[in-house]
Amino acid sequence: MDALHTDLYQLTMAAGYFHRGMTSRVATCELFVRRLPRHRRFLVAMGLDRVVRYLEGLRFTDEQIAYLGAIPALADAMTPAFADYLRGFRFHGDVWAVPEGTVVFPNEPLLRVTAPLIEAQLIETFALSAINHATAVASKAARVVLAAGDAGVMEFGTRRTHPEAALDAARAAYAVGCVGTSNVEAGMRFGIPVLGTAAHMWTMAHPTEEAAFEGYVAVFPSAATLLIDTYDTLVGAARAAAIARDRLKGVRLDSGDLGALSVAVRKILDDAGCASAKIVASGDLNEHRIAELRRAGAPIDLYGVGTDLVTSIDAPSLGGVYKLVEIGGG
Predict the structure, then answer these.
(1) Would you tell me which of 45, 111, 151, 242 could form a disulfide with 97, CB atoms 3.0–4.6 Å apart?
(2) Torsion of CA 191, 196, 199, 205, to 10 degrees
(3) What is the pLDDT of residue 330?
């Protein structure tokens, strides 16, 4: 599983240890962050589950071993004996880590591995990749959730990152308090509530906004959250209330002055007898914009946050490192 999801030098080092008779030496390595990124005062540790699954399933296939033999930098070391070692490779070490969701600070170990030297070396790249990414996203998502207060935050960022990264991002965001994700695969894989509304294309594909709303409510009578800003947001709010009535679960605002519009839309919905309908806001949101809206008293019940959250846009990389801290003889 994922055996080649690593840097070449992990494999050249493993080959070197093998041929120099160092396989019995036991090493302890720690993964930590030397300094916080700008705009961060804390981090939230995530990614351990991915690392554990990687360690449990780490294997080299015959096809992968043959490929390694064709890499010039490895060719001299890919002897039959080393190939046999890789073929039987299993991780035998011990792993200690802080629980996922733990708030951590610089120079505090997130992960500690004690294992035979080759094993401790080989897992470095994957461990850093999984934990750096998930921790960066979780730390950003935690800031967004804190800013939202008692309003919910939905993770909406799948389209703004790589498909596999989107799954890790959805899991990290949910772990720190997001109420759900738009990513259906993440919902099935991790048991995360899957949430969503409607597309502008749906409205534009109908001859009128009224027809679009009527069609949506007909198909989804118990889950009608209508997107009302395709044309005129306030007119859309009135139409949504008139058409869906007591079946209206909510409306979504995706553009414009979200603060002013949410106030006006709330009044339209309340006056129409749709006081229970929620207002969902989305569109380039982050913790700072959400804090501004809340300070202004915007009556927004749910925030959909995508790009800034899944890319951790103001701190897009985390400088986690994995270092040898102890080595035994042998």
Answers:
(1) 111
(2) 80
(3) 61
Question: Which stretches of the chain are DSSP H helices?
Answer: 8-19, 48-57, 62-69, 72-75, 80-87, 117-122, 124-148, 163-175, 184-190, 200-204, 209-219, 233-244, 258-271, 287-295, 307-310
Q: What CATH topology corresponds to 139-310?
A: TIM Barrel (3.20.20)
Identify which of 254, 231, 258 has the alpha carbon closest to the alpha carbon of residue 306: 254
The three-state secondary structure class of 33 is: strand
Burial 202-226 (b: 16+ CB within 10 A, else e): bbeeeeebeebbeebbeeeeeebbb
316 with 106: CB under 8 angstroms?
no
Task: Assign a CATH topology to domain 8-136+316-327.
Answer: nicotinate phosphoribosyltransferase (3.20.140)
d(CA 147, CA 121): 40
All CATH 3.20.140.10 domain ranges of the chain, comma separated, are 8-136+316-327
pLDDT at 173: 98
| Residues 6+ away with beta carbon under 8 Å from 205 | 212
Name the 3-class secondary structure at 194: strand
Tell me if residue 192 falls in helix, strand or coil: coil
The confidence score (pLDDT) of residue 39 equals 87
Helices 258-271 and 287-295, axial angle in degrees (round to 10): 50
Residues of the chain with pLDDT under 50: none
The answer to whether 222 and 247 are in contact (CB under 8 A) is: yes
At 237 the three-state DSSP class reads helix
pLDDT in tens, 284-330: 999 999 999 999 999 999 999 999 999 999 999 999 999 999 999 76
pLDDT of 2 reads 82
Q: How many helices (H) and strands (E) does the chain have?
A: 15, 12
Q: How far apart are CA 174 and CA 230, in angstroms?
A: 29
